[in-house]
Every structure is written in structure tokens, then in C-alpha cells.
Design goal:
Blueprint lengths: L9 H8 L5 H11 L4 E5 L11 E2 L4 H10 L2 H6 L3 E8 L17 H10 L8 E10 L4 E9 L9 E8 L3 H19 L4
């Protein structure tokens, strides 16, 4: 079944990273990333061992599992996601100028170059997205890096998140609230 009828647009990517994209738009975005380097990493990552954050590909099932289990879609549906940026056409990654590129450090750029299927040429940041998902308490920036070695429309994805809350405590709190509500409705207390 082919869902992808054209390349992903800025709107597709904005909805995809905001965790509310349709299956067809999600597949277009996934198609743009598969074949490139995909990194999902915390802001404070070890300089060595970056490979644990490298994913060979994204699938539609994996994307929607993340949407559900991370509570980010719930955050967006409840109006609790702060959309901060969706921008295209940035300066080269080698230039490292501008506030938005301080998080895409030289070692990240070097890792993408080393792990790219082909030797990257003119690696540059072409898009930046930023969101704050209030329900799980995470701040996320997504960068799309393009190079001439990738086929047209393909990009590397670098996603950097900062966990502002400790997620296990959120789950304990949610289960506590749910247990309390169920207990009251059943007349247990």
C-alpha cells in the first residue's frame, strides 16, 4: 500500500514533529528520513557512545507507538504543547552561527558524516522545529540536515530533547489519579 504521493511539506513535518500527523503525511516524513542518519538524543549526551541514539530507520508503527506512549499527542490535543518554531533554509552546519545551531555540535555533525551511507557533501541544516510538550514535560528540537550525497527530498534527522520532568513520576501520578477515580466510582473510598 503506497501512502506517499509526493514529498513531505513544511506543514507535514510540522504536524509530524508535533505528533499529530495523518498516516499519509507521516509516511511522507518517514520516507524523507529513511536512508539518512536518524538520531534521537538527550541534550546532555556522552561524547562517546553516541551510537546508542542512532536509529537505522523509522516505521509508521514505531512513530505512532511513540505518539501514544510518550503522551506528546495528548499534550498537543489538550492544547498543552507550546509550538516554538518551524523554519526552513538555515546557514551551513559548518558555520555554526545562530542560536539554533548551538545544539547541533561539531561532534554531532561529525557523527552524521561518519554514519552516512555515502560521504556527505556540503552538510547543512535546512529545517528546525521546536516544541515544548507540557504533559510529559519535555522540550524538543528537531533539525533536518541535508547533503548532496542523499537523494533529493531525503534528510538526516537530529532530534534533541530535554526531559524537564522525571517521566516515571508522571506515570506514578497518572496511575494514582486513575486509581483514585476508579476507587471513588466503585465506592471503595
Amino acid at each position: 500500500m503506497a501512502l506517499n504521493t509526493h514529498s513531505a511539506t513544511l506543514t507535514d513535518f510540522t504536524n509530524f514533529h508535533g505528533m499529530l500527523a495523518s498516516p499519509a503525511a507521516s509516511q511522507r516524513c518517514i520516507d524523507a528520513f529513511n536512508g539518512g542518519v536518524i538520531l534521537f538524543m538527550p541534550r546532555s549526551y556522552p561524547k562517546r557512545g553516541m551510537s546508542v541514539y542512532h536509529y537505522p530507520q523509522i516505521t509508521l508503527l514505531a512513530y505512532y507507538s511513540l505518539v501514544v506512549y510518550s503522551f506528546t499527542a495528548l499534550s498537543t490535543l489538550c492544547g498543552m504543547t507550546a509550538f516554538q518554531d518551524a523554519s526552513e533554509d538555515f546557514v551551513s552546519a559548518q558555520g555554526m552561527k545562530g542560536d539554533f545551531v548551538k545544539d547541533v555540535t561539531a561532534d554531532i555533525v561529525q557523527y552524521v558524516k561518519e554514519k552516512s551511507a555515502k560521504t556527505p557533501v556540503n552538510l547543512r541544516i535546512v529545517r528546525r522545529f521546536a516544541y515544548r510538550f507540557n504533559i510529559p514535560g519535555i522540550q524538543v528540537q528537531m533539525f533536518h540536515l541535508a547533503d548532496e550525497a542523499l537523494p533529493p527530498g531525503k534528510v538526516h534527522l537530529v532530534e534533541i530533547y530535554e526531559d524537564e520532568m522525571h517521566l516515571p513520576f508522571i506515570f506514578v501520578g497518572l496511575f494514582g489519579i486513575l486509581f483514585s477515580l476508579l476507587g471513588r466510582s466503585a465506592g471503595l473510598f
